[in-house]
Amino acid sequence: GAMMDNRFATALVIACVLSLISTIYMAASIGTDFWYEYHTLSPAENVSEAGRSIWEEFFSKEADEKTYTDALFRCNGTVGLWRRCITVPKNSHWYSPPETDMTTNCISFSLSDQFMEKYIEPGNHNSGTDLNRTYLWRLQFLLPFVSIGLMCFGALIGLCACACRSLYPAIATGVLHFLAGLCTLGLVGCYVAGIELLHKKLPLPDDVRGEFGWSFCLACVSAPLQFMAAALFIWAARTNRKEFTLLKAYRVA
Predict the structure, then answer these.
(1) For residue 126, with 0-12 CB atoms within 10 Å meaning exposed, 13-18 middle and 19 or more buried, which class applies?
(2) 251 lies in a domain?
(3) pTM here?
(4) Dmax of the chain from CA atoms?
(5) In this predicted model, what pLDDT tens digit does every residue of 216-241 receive, in sequence order?
(6) Hey, is 24 helix, strand or coil?
(7) Cβ of 103: how many Cβ atoms within 10 Å?
(8) Could you give the number of structural domains in the chain?
(9) Coil vs helix vs strand at 129
């Protein structure tokens, strides 16, 4: 049996490491603001009045989806699950020379923003609710927490398993990691669909390029890690159980 035990131990250690890395990636991707990035190819409006009013509206509590999306387009914006950021000149005095000194300012989505309805025409609340976009947005906000929760719950079960020296709970841990992987995949899918639908409604200006950022990539990498961890946990538990049954049969014989 020692040979076999080593194989399970190795599988479980690798599974735990994968699980830990994917949890860190998930947490980092939730906490950072680079899910989507806009690159403005034309120079920023040099502190013109138009530029000023765009920024002021972006930071106002009343900023609707159209207002802040326009600002993101114009000012090299980046969007996270929790915050939106734009890059603006440090000194916004009209008399200063066009500054090359830029600073990034962010504003958080409040909880009510996260659950607010999205409209068929962004920014126009008379156009009716766009159910698809509203629910995609709510899901992309909730799913990462469900995913992390499932993995932490799996880790707790795993710790109990170590304490009880039993491999049965490893199957439960594996199943929880599999569900976490599904949530992460769902999150990535919802985010992509939400961005696509938004850009259909508010097309990117010709001189603006948009791309998914590294926070989004971390979530994409997290999903396969969760599935690999799940497969290893389940494999270790099942093969070990088979070995155990064979040993018992052998002893009885």
Answers:
(1) exposed
(2) no
(3) 0.88
(4) 95
(5) 999 999 999 999 999 999 998 888 77
(6) helix
(7) 11
(8) 1
(9) strand
